[in-house]
Amino acid sequence: MAAPRPYLTHWGRVRAAVVWEALTAALPRLGAGPLTVLDAGGGTGGFSVPLAALGHRVTVVDPSPDSLAALERRAAEEGADGITGVQGDLSTLLDVVAPGTVDVVLCHSVLEVVDDPAAGIATVAATLRPGGLASVVAANRSAAVVSRALAGRFDEAAAALDDPDGRWGDGDAAHRRFGRAELVALLAGAGLAADEVHGVRVFTDLVPGGLLDTDAAAFEALVRLETAASGRDPYRDLATQLHVLATRTP
């Protein structure tokens, strides 16, 4: 049976396709399962509920009570047993699980907003058993420069180009963005060796929404294109986000 995809539809699915396919392809190397999965900042369970549906034991740690309530409803609707929601954040992960006991940690779209990314990743690494897998998604610095320029906001593009955190101005909602080498080095500093780096949303954010809303074939073709381009240079370095699969070294 094919693995269930994240509980995201249409635009959401094409944005998540690269991460989901890479993640589920990597899970078998960790053993037959069920695996112990920790989803830091997992919100309403876009990835956690499908992983639980595959039979894995999943704990979602998120600061939002509303998101955790939605997670509980979604899991019940989908009959996904083995999923638990806990209020917290990266700094409290070791209050939820014992060190060195987790097979897989998801840390998706969290490093952009935490006060100390290095400390957060160190906590992620501390939860993993040796050989365990971290799936990290973070905003890509290069994409901010390109997107601002394409929007005609050339001063903001120049600001993002030179800013140490890749921010384009005071109105930028992201606290920081990462280059590929920078993100890989951040993980390495915590004992996480990068196995794969993918670009997420290389083309999707540049495609007019109306096209995919009316053309199912174009939607499927875009999913295939995103998957094919995600691991190739120079395309992945232009993606909105970077996805790293990294292994906890002994």
Written overview of the protein:
By secondary structure, the protein is of the alpha/beta class. It has one domain: Vaccinia Virus protein VP39 (Rossmann fold, 3-Layer(aba) Sandwich). 40% of the residues lie in helices and 21% in strands. The protein contains ten helices and seven strands. The protein has a seven-stranded mixed beta sheet, sandwiched between helices. β4, α5 and β5 form a beta-alpha-beta unit. It is globular, with a radius of gyration of 18 Å.
- Beta-strand content bin: 15-25%
Give the overall shape.
globular
Strand order of the largest sheet: 3-2-1-4-5-7-6
Given as residue ranges, the uncertain stretches (5+ residues, pLDDT < 50) are none
Order of helices and strands: HEHEHEHEHEHHHEHHE
CATH structural fold name: Rossmann fold
Distance between the ends: 34 Å
Distinct helical segment count: 10
**What is the CA-atom radius of gyration, in angstroms?**
18 Å
Tally of strands? 7
Average pLDDT metric: 91
CATH level 4 superfamily: Vaccinia Virus protein VP39
Which CATH-level-2 architecture? 3-Layer(aba) Sandwich
Supply the CATH class. Answer: Alpha Beta
> Based on helices, strands and strand pairing, what is the structural class?
alpha/beta
Largest sheet: 7 strands, mixed
